Amino acid sequence: MIDRFQYREDREAYSAARVKALEALLIKKGIITDKTVDTVLDFFETKMGPFNGAKIVARAWVDPSFKDRLVADTPAAIAELNLPEGMAGAEGEHMRAVANSPNVHNLIICTLCSCYPWPVLGLPPYWYKDPTFRSRAAREPRAVLNEFGLPVPEAIEIKVWDSSAQIRWFVVPERPVGTEGMTEAELEALVTPEAMMGVAIAKAA
């Protein structure tokens, strides 16, 4: 997907260089310390990220009543689980879940900028923030999903949910067929950020 949006080949090195320069300037001015960035990175590597979303989705797969509560009142349902503190902060305010079904496929976008539920999905990928994706997914979601390798039959309705500072959406994908004997922990491994964004489906290993 990245290639379709024609990012510069050295984008990673270019972005890293800019970040290093900005970090050095902020340290020099005394705004942050040399430990600040490491602390933030550790936060998103160990506390807030798609591993939380995987736990939420796996619980919804094995507990239909939890799934109903998750869709009806997402923050309250999430609070039932043993997840790290801060799930409602740092871009987790007002999170809402929508569930895929045999008749409906949900897609999450942000047409204004890149609002994203960090506590359950981690940091947004490049393409999610790209104006091309944001505009095309709103106008022609079926075509965009097909480009992601996810052809959605015409008989299935596609609902597009626009995240914002007021509501940050994520998807509960359908449970893969053939996973009836798997444990909740094993199911977590099948849940990807892409599936929780609606640009992919969860698949059995």
TrEMBL record:
Catalytic activity field: an aliphatic primary amide = an aliphatic nitrile + H2O
GO molecular function, one term: transition metal ion binding
Gene for this chain: nthA
Nitrile hydratase alpha/Thiocyanate hydrolase gamma domain ranges (all copies): 15-200
NCBIfam families: nitrile_alph
Coiled coil: none
Alphabetized UniProt keyword annotations: Iron, Lyase, Metal-binding, Plasmid
Pfam families assigned: NHase_alpha
EC number: 4.2.1.84
Binding annotation for Fe(3+): C110, C113, S114, C115
Family statement drawn from the similarity comment of this UniProt entry: Belongs to the nitrile hydratase subunit alpha family.
UniProt protein name: nitrile hydratase
Broad class of enzyme this protein falls into: lyase
